[in-house]
Amino acid sequence: MASRYDAMRGGEERGLASARGISPHLTDGVVLEVGVGTGIVALGLQRLGHQVLGVDISEAMLEQAHERLPGRVQQADARNLPFPDACVANVVFVHTLHLIGDMDAGITEAARVLRGGGRLVAIHGMPTADPDPMVDALARLSVLQPPRPDTAANLARIGAAAGLEPVTHTRGGEYDQPTTPTALIRSIEDRVPPYLWDVDELAWSRVVEPVLAELRALPDQDVARVHRWRSECTVLAKPAG
After folding, report:
1. Which tens digit of pLDDT belongs to each residue from 200-218?
2. What is the rounded distance in angstroms from the CA atom of residue 180 to the CA atom of residue 134?
3. What's the confidence (pLDDT) of residue 7?
4. SS3 17
5. How far lies 162's CA from each of 113, 211, 236, in Å?
6. Percent of the chain at pLDDT above 70?
7. Are 118 and 91 in contact (CB under 8 A)?
8. Gap between the Cα atoms of 93 and 35, Å rounded
9. What is the CA radius of gyration of the chain?
């Protein structure tokens, strides 16, 4: 699953593109990525000159992250980080806040480990792309996704309760991702997106199978279409002192 997830997310090229969007928002010092996954974004940040650490709850994801960032990643729960107070300059979340289970606890923990003057940078929200037959087909799967908690308003509210101040909110996390219909079909069939993990047979037949049929009907099944995906970027800061 981890290798397929990595491939469908654009691999290291996409990780570097995401890192370039995040880097200008960071302050000097260590960057902790919470939900580091296979390490593609953290590796991109390291290649841009940042000192990085990463945590993830998934052993399978961390196997690949260890290969990319030996000695820099470890298994941990975002709600109980294995770091002392005020020890890192930056905490980064890239499309992970909605997966934590308790976003309030995750942001509160991030605020705890941030030093004064440190930054929390979150790439969040539902990614969007310009209309296209593949994008439109994927959009029809959105009925299977639970309401996402990672809105800008929720981040601001939880951050304020944790003592963080707003810096900026923009459209960020932009990246180009080439995908063939064949690869997209395979990722859906293999239930790579987390929201498909627990879909029952009835919902699969009613919602997913028509989308798969639509994708199978597209011409040039093995020719990649390039989509530019965009997400939200929220930056919060811990007051100095």
Report:
1. 999 999 999 999 999 999 9
2. 9
3. 59
4. helix
5. 11, 42, 11
6. 95
7. yes
8. 7
9. 18
The whole-number average pLDDT for the span 125-132 is: 91
Question: How far is it, in rounded angstroms, from Cα 207 to Cα 211?
Answer: 7
| Position 89 pLDDT exceeds 90 | yes
Q: Decide: 138 and 90 in contact? Cβ < 8 Å.
A: no
SS3 16: helix
169-195 pLDDT, tens digit each = 998 767 888 899 999 999 999 998 888
- Residues 15 and 19: their CA atoms lie apart, in Å, by 6
Longest dimension (CA), the chain: 60
**191 contacts: CB under 8 Å, gap ≥ 6:** 197, 199
Listed in sequence order, the DSSP H helices in the chain are 2-8, 11-22, 40-47, 59-68, 103-113, 133-139, 152-161, 181-189, 201-203, 209-216
Q: Is 55 within 8 Å of 81 (Cβ atoms)?
A: yes
The answer to whether the CB of 36 falls within 8 A of the CB of 42 is: yes
Single pTM value for the model:
0.89
Identify whether the C-beta of residue 155 lies closer than 8 Å to the C-beta of residue 234.
yes
Which tokens hold the place of 226? 């390039």
